Amino acid sequence: MTTRIDRRMAKLKAEGRPALVTYFMSGDPDYDTALSIMKALPKAGADIIEMGMPFSDPMADGPAIQAAGLRALKGGQTLVKTLKMASEFRTTDNETPIVLMGYYNPIYIHGVDRFLRDALASGIDGLIVVDLPPEMDEELCIPALKAGINFIRLATPTTDDKRLPKVLQNTSGFVYYVSMTGITGSALADTGKVAAAVGRIKGHTDLPVCVGFGVKTAEQARIIGASADGVVVGTAIVNAVANVLGPKGEKTADPAEAVATLVSGLSQGVRAARLAAAE
Amino acid sequence: MNKPATPNSFRTGPDEQGMFGIFGGRFVAETLMPLILDLERHWNEVKDDPDFKAELTDLSTHYAGRPSKLYFAEGLTRHLREVSSAKGLGGGAKVYFKREDLNHTGSHKINNCLGQILLAKRMGKKRIIAETGAGQHGVASATVAARFGFPCVVYMGATDVARQSPNVFRMKLLGAEVRPVTAGHGTLKDAMNEALRDWVTNVEDTYYLIGTAAGPHPYPELVRDFQSVIGTEARAQILEQEGRLPDTIIACVGGGSNAIGLFHPFLDDKEVRIIGIEAGGRGLDGIEHCASMNAGAPGVLHGNRTYLLQNADGQIIDGHSISAGLDYPGVGPEHSWLRDSGRVDYVPVLDDEALEAFQLTTRVEGIIPALESAHAIAHAVKIVPAMDKDQIVIVNLSGRGDKDVHTVANMLGMEI
């Protein structure tokens, strides 16, 4: 069966340009603001939305996303509210793919079967669960695939050719290549190495390969987008929100507008990537 | 929760996937997965290698001071017999202390650190990272890093840095860099998150020296095996000193490495009652405790599934304990399995009870126990008077309490 992710990726491939995949933290700094950010993303040129599910102990995330998750939790965000936010988004946008990204425990506590039912009903298309490697596929990956939800796996520089087939085995939607070892929000990796790694992964799969970790500017998006099928931007968006919050969390400007400005720029970067690649 | 069927042996876990029943596993980011598999490969190579064992035994003997003594705590036994008589019971079991406090660095932590530093050396790693709560594991890590010439970074919650300053200074003297972690409540959980972030970033050359029998497979197994020297010795010593096995063994459980080390060699001795003591803090009614197995639920954190303190949304709750070493919202996965299988009883002891046992032991034995170990002693104080005089209890005295004198002085309203 095809999902919104498959359809969107096929469409962009036909257009000959990479996808702009944007991550935001659901519930940061509060439910209503986060929903307005979510709605602003596609309008500003985002092709796929990654919705961060806040977790108290985000072990693979850097300070920016840690802080965003804590702001969201402090604002009362829960897994149930994140799914509700997706449902509300779907009332005005039934095309843009939504991928939930986070850690396993809130899903496990919600109950895997119940979570998959609720996620489908909320219009969720894919999952990225950081702490579920292929060794733990029985937990959520296989049930998700059966339910018709893409399970998107991270591949990293430590995923060598021997391991890659295992990582790709039950992956669907796209492959998320983390361009460096380290936590989210670290410096951008060597772009030449990234292109080589994307080529290496493409030798093992027909799935689109999106690249993340470290992309902050339109120029970086353009360069990464020349070799990858998608460019993931996360920390820069979360920072755009943080930058318009005062010391007590009060809004000094409209976070949705700040995010839209950033994403518009990035969107020009990925759209220029097609021209760059064609040269 | 349904009880799993009673297995023929309680000592065969984990399975090949690193599971103890539903507990354990490898819930880590893909970046770490190849490292964990590499660690497992090396661990499987060395665990039955006579050369590795010989090197570890030699260090344990001449550097750490093993075997640790099994000491008949005559003063405490006499005191508890008086309590028993006063209650008209006329009983009071014999209490023995397994003296891990006499090890080099002052706790059981050195057992695990020596084993893992030899493993790190074999794997060709260049840098050691560790997390610490009370600072005992940080000190033990810094010690073995100094001994073997590794640079060492220790992550420690900022709250713990403040309440365990003597250990912070010790680590610095030993050449380690102590990085305070301000996230969360600034305790062990947050230190572990930060250590994992370091590891995810420095995958090439770094060895993560986990201090407790928790984390992704194979850590719970290898830490248990390095700590099992405690129970193996205690079992042989009590057979030699008393000619029979003990009736009850007791140890405190934070992550649970000293406890699993004592318990594991006794698990198939059905006549031995095994009790793990959780930090009851200020009571189990609220959230000011760390009794994950008495008041928590199974969940996934720090690479394994185990009992955790968490809310209905699966967010981890920061607990509380007077003792920094027990201040952790989870527990090693093998304990969770032993709890559900019914082989081990886990009961809480409150801050105040531990503090009383700390003072009592100091007064009647001339031994200052770690506040962690004082939790185990406190439970012995509760149950021993009702036991018979010919019964035997072994309490794991997992560490010495010199590090805790500031905390205790504070609690008692004294100035040092």
Automatic annotation (TrEMBL), chain A:
Pfam families tied to this protein: Trp_syntA
InterPro entries reported in the protein's UniProt record: Aldolase_TIM, RibuloseP-bd_barrel, Trp_synthase_alpha_AS, Trp_synthase_suA
Active site: E50, D61
Reactions catalysed according to its record: (1S,2R)-1-C-(indol-3-yl)glycerol 3-phosphate + L-serine = D-glyceraldehyde 3-phosphate + L-tryptophan + H2O
Record Gene3D superfamilies: Aldolase class I
Biochemical pathway: Amino-acid biosynthesis; L-tryptophan biosynthesis; L-tryptophan from chorismate: step 5/5
PROSITE patterns recorded: TRP_SYNTHASE_ALPHA
EC number in record: 4.2.1.20
GO terms assigned for molecular function: tryptophan synthase activity
Class of the enzyme per the UniProt entry, highest EC level: lyase
The keyword Transmembrane belongs to this UniProt entry's keyword annotation: no
Keywords of this entry: Amino-acid biosynthesis, Aromatic amino acid biosynthesis, Lyase, Tryptophan biosynthesis
Entry keyword annotation includes Membrane: no
SUPFAM superfamilies hit by this protein: Ribulose-phoshate binding barrel
Gene Ontology CC: one annotated term: cytosol
Assembly and interaction partners: Tetramer of two alpha and two beta chains.
PANTHER family on file: TRYPTOPHAN SYNTHASE ALPHA CHAIN, CHLOROPLASTIC (PTHR43406:SF1), TRYPTOPHAN SYNTHASE, ALPHA CHAIN (PTHR43406)
Family note: Belongs to the TrpA family.
UniProt function note: The alpha subunit is responsible for the aldol cleavage of indoleglycerol phosphate to indole and glyceraldehyde 3-phosphate.
Protein name according to UniProt: Tryptophan synthase alpha chain
Species assigned in the record: Mesorhizobium prunaredense
Automatic annotation (TrEMBL), chain B:
Positions bearing N6-(pyridoxal phosphate)lysine: K109
Superkingdom field: Bacteria
Cofactors (names): pyridoxal 5'-phosphate
InterPro entries: Trp_synth_b_CS, Trp_synth_beta, Trp_synth_beta/beta-like, TrpB-like_PALP, TrpB-like_PALP_sf
Keywords in alphabetical order: Amino-acid biosynthesis, Aromatic amino acid biosynthesis, Lyase, Pyridoxal phosphate, Tryptophan biosynthesis
Catalytic activity: (1S,2R)-1-C-(indol-3-yl)glycerol 3-phosphate + L-serine = D-glyceraldehyde 3-phosphate + L-tryptophan + H2O
UniProt keyword Lyase present: yes
GO cellular component, one term: cytoplasm
Top-tier EC class: lyase
Pathway assignment: Amino-acid biosynthesis; L-tryptophan biosynthesis; L-tryptophan from chorismate: step 5/5
SUPFAM superfamilies: Tryptophan synthase beta subunit-like PLP-dependent enzymes (SSF53686)
GO MF annotation: an example: tryptophan synthase activity
Segments forming domain Tryptophan synthase beta chain-like PALP: 87-398
EC number of this enzyme: 4.2.1.20
UniProt xrefs under Pfam families: PALP (PF00291)
Keyword match Amino-acid biosynthesis: yes
Record-stated family: Belongs to the TrpB family.
Subunit structure and binding partners: Tetramer of two alpha and two beta chains.
Function noted in UniProt: The beta subunit is responsible for the synthesis of L-tryptophan from indole and L-serine.
The protein, known as: Tryptophan synthase beta chain
Originating species: Mesorhizobium prunaredense
Gene field: trpB
